[in-house]
Write a structure and sequence with these properties.
370 residues, globular
């Protein structure tokens, strides 16, 4: 490890390759998960799923990694957004920061809700439904851009926080991480008493997961203010990684217990739901710190191809549902079993989506937004 590299919010963009690498890795994972929901697992609906596997056993086995990836796969991106928001707010001021966030997050969000989601839904269901395109426009939702919607709200909250509180810089200690994990769990449980985790309010914006994202975003702010990532040793990284692994095991045990009891977690004010919320907070904090630290020290640089993928990562995330549906439709005539087709489609879709995402950033005007 290097001794005392520049702090995150002062680090030049050229030397933040590791952040782009985090985005590329996670968004590639998102594409794989959504490919899986189209072919081999029914844990979440996808625009195109009329070639779903008939194997209930394999589907159940694959449900677990898909579920965990769907819940925790974006937490490191909330962390990075919190880190970068510190520098952006300092550079732009409150008014400039708010304007920039509204343009960068609000514009693509509206485009997705009004255009991309309805088109992807219409094309993906052509073989199963006879509804016209306007039906999907009327029934549109936030879908995968719940991350963008949540980040827009967090950014507005951060801009309104008093400067002294926004500059809070706790020293990185185990008890600080434990406190953040507890806050994440308590806030999630409190919200679930009013808005269940599986609630579809606000255009199915996955509001039940917003407390988790908010706390991790705040943790990113703390990390930027106190230069946490400069001081994470290899030993600390390993311990946090083991904590995340144990947390995943505990979460898996809770899910298995719920399934054996023919009950759903996070649906009522009871002890299992409370435990589920607390373990979610534990995993979110430990996994995020481990993953970001691991990428920063093990994958700090990038080549030209990764540089382009990183530049187009945000656009890739927003447009990938439509690009993935088109890839699935193109593969529809190919006679492969769903399990094999899932692997083929995921392998094809990752470069296709990132290529389109980067191409979008080359369009004049749009390149200033994404």
């Amino acid at each position: 490890m290097r001794d005392h590299p520049p702090t995150i919010d002062a680090e030049p963009r050229l030397h933040q390759s590791w952040m782009d690498n985090v985005r590329v890795a996670l968004i590639a994972g998102v594409i794989v998960v959504h490919s899986a929901t189209g072919y081999v697992t029914d844990i979440a609906g996808w625009y195109y799923d009329d070639e779903m596997t008939s194997s209930e056993v394999w589907s159940a086995v694959r449900d677990i990694p898909v579920l965990l990836g769907g819940v925790f796969g974006l937490t490191p991106m909330f962390f990075i957004a919190g880190c970068l928001s510190v520098r952006s707010l300092a550079r732009r001021g409150r008014a400039g920061f708010v304007r920039a966030r509204i343009v960068r997050l609000g514009g693509p969000l509206l485009l997705f809700i009004l255009v991309i989601h309805p088109i992807a839904n219409y094309l993906g269901n052509l073989h199963q439904e006879s509804f016209g395109f306007l039906h999907y426009v009327r029934n549109t939702e936030v879908s995968v851009t719940w991350f963008v919607a949540a980040l827009l709200v967090y950014s507005m909250v951060f801009a309104a926080v008093p400067r002294r509180l926004a500059a809070f810089a706790p020293v990185l200690r185990p008890r600080v991480l434990v406190g953040i994990a507890l806050a994440c769990g308590f806030l999630s449980f409190a919200l679930w008493l009013v808005v269940p985790l599986d609630s579809r309010i606000l255009l199915n914006g996955r509001v039940g997961e917003w407390p988790l994202g908010l706390v991790v975003f705040a943790m990113g702010v703390f990390a930027a203010n106190a230069r946490w990532l400069d001081h994470i040793s290899a030993g600390t990284q390993r311990r946090v990684g083991w904590a995340a692994l144990v947390g995943f095991g505990a979460l898996l045990a809770l899910l298995v217990a719920a399934s054996l009891g023919d009950d759903d977690v996070a649906t009522r004010a009871d002890v299992p739901t409370f435990l589920f919320a607390m373990v979610m907070g534990w995993v979110a904090v430990a996994f995020t710190v481990w993953f970001v630290s691991w990428i920063r020290h093990r994958w700090p640089t990038r080549g030209p191809l990764l540089a382009k993928a990183g530049r187009g990562s945000y656009a890739t995330y927003v447009i990938h549902p439509l690009a993935l549906v088109l890839t699935m439709l193109a593969m529809r005539p190919v006679p492969l079993v769903p399990e094999v087709k899932f692997v083929v489609v995921a392998a094809l879709a990752i470069p296709i989506c990132f290529t389109i995402g980067y191409a979008v950033t080359r369009v004049p005007g749009i390149n200033k937004v994404v």
